[in-house]
Amino acid sequence: MRQSKQPVVVGGTVAVVDDDLSVREALRNLLSSVGLDIHTFASTHEFLAWSIPDTPICLVLDVRMPGQNGLDFQQELFRTRVEIPVVFITAHGDIPMSVRAMKFGAIEFLTKPFRDQDLLDAIYLGLQTSQIRRNEKTMTADLRARYDSLSVRERQVMDMILDGKLTKQIAAKFALSEITVKVCRAQIMRKMEAASLLELGRMSETLERIRD
């Protein structure tokens, strides 16, 4: 027997976008009954006009709606708000649709009618995923700020250090004394809050991914 997942995210929000009023009301009743904070919208336009709360959030999205369809909207959202996971619901799903949805990070692709518990499980997973993505976004922004605090020379020295260059080689490259290079290195470690060169290297790899 399948065991349902239990909610582990506190303060999460569920947004439902579906042009069918009866579906929106049914989902409002279901999600409210388990204590989830739910907001419903008849279109993606209404959703975009909403002030998205600063909490973990999961978007339950219909595929076929008048105007912009759910799949196109998910692709747009993926580029701008990747921290918002999407659970798709549809009465007319097929394999190409589900493959496209998963390509852009959908949590689940459910075909109507679906079990209430399957939807709840997907939403709980979406809220957990949103929390993880929000944490990563915050950590990445903090790392970027630390790197931005480095001077141009400190960034140059950091690159050479991570490239395995010795202190005397770095000193010769920039016409500096070895003492100055050592002081610069200490400044880099302090500003980046790196406890070791290995940790500094991992930070550099993360920064490269950000740039990409």
What does this structure look like?
The protein has 212 residues and is of the alpha/beta class. Helices cover 57% and strands 12% of the residues. The chain is built from nine helices and five strands; from the N terminus they run βαβαβαβαβααααα. It has helices at residues 21-33, 44-48, 70-80, 95-103, 116-148, 152-162, 167-174, 178-192, 197-211; strands at 13-17, 37-41, 57-62, 86-90, 108-111. A five-stranded parallel β-sheet has the order 2-1-3-4-5, sandwiched between helices. Helix 4 links the parallel strand 4 (86-90) and strand 5. Mean pLDDT is 89; it is low at 1-5.
The number of distinct β-strands equals 5
> Beta-sheet strand percentage?
5-15%
Mean pLDDT: 89
Largest sheet: 5 strands, parallel
Q: Calculate the terminal CA-CA distance, rounded to whole Å.
A: 44 Å
Question: So how many helices?
Answer: 9
- Which strands sit side by side, in order, in the main sheet? 2-1-3-4-5
Helix percent band: 55-70%
Stretches where pLDDT is under 50 for at least 5 consecutive residues are: 1-5
Rg (CA only): 24 Å
